[in-house]
TrEMBL record:
Signal peptide: none annotated. It is found in: Cytoplasm. InterPro entries: Alpha/beta_knot_MTases, RsmE, RsmE_MTase_dom, tRNA_m1G_MTases_N. NCBIfam families: RsmE family RNA methyltransferase. It catalyses: uridine(1498) in 16S rRNA + S-adenosyl-L-methionine = N(3)-methyluridine(1498) in 16S rRNA + S-adenosyl-L-homocysteine + H(+). GO terms for molecular function: rRNA (uridine-N3-)-methyltransferase activity. One of its GO terms (biological process) is rRNA base methylation. Belongs to the RNA methyltransferase RsmE family. Residues 14-195 form the Ribosomal RNA small subunit methyltransferase E methyltransferase domain. This is 16S rRNA (uracil(1498)-N(3))-methyltransferase.
Amino acid sequence: TVKLKKYNPINRTSNIKIHLLQSLAKGEKMELILQKSTELGITSITPLATERSVMHLKKDQTEKRLERWNNIITSACEQCELNIPPMLHAPISIENWIQDVLPTLNTTVITLAPTAIHSLGSFLKAFSMPEHPHSEDNSAQEITEHSFTIVIGPEGGLTEDEIQALQDAGAKSVSLGQRILRTETAALSVISTIQGLIGDWSTMTEMAFED
């Protein structure tokens, strides 16, 4: 049974759906990503097993680890007064996700690639332009109802084969610039950029600045 201590009717969920596929990272890094991405307004989190993942969960460890991660998410929700927590899915391999899960989703998949031609910022700005297939009539309503899935690699990055498999499945490869970011920095940077350019940060009432 669950005892309700306090209910806050104010809905603070983001106006745009952001799903994070985070490659498994070592202890504190993974917990930091879960905590901060929750505060930034993501919709769901899926731990991802990739070729270069430095953390590998055994079957008998998964349930206990998910319980701890859910507790971290709950604490983060309390911190930011979020009344609908993001969904934490069970870990899955990147191959199984591409093959079994992705075909069932209506989402724009974004992954980071060192050879990507377009920056994340330019991609998101183009996404909101009238000529973009997902932004007919440049409608803010259509943009905010859209879903983004972010695929973040581990400490060593996704392999070329993994990036190619994602691209073959329709993922858009983008860059965060010339500097190589840690996996936890990359995840939070992508979420923040989406929120800032087309998410709930971009729809807040603009302030009038006086000279």
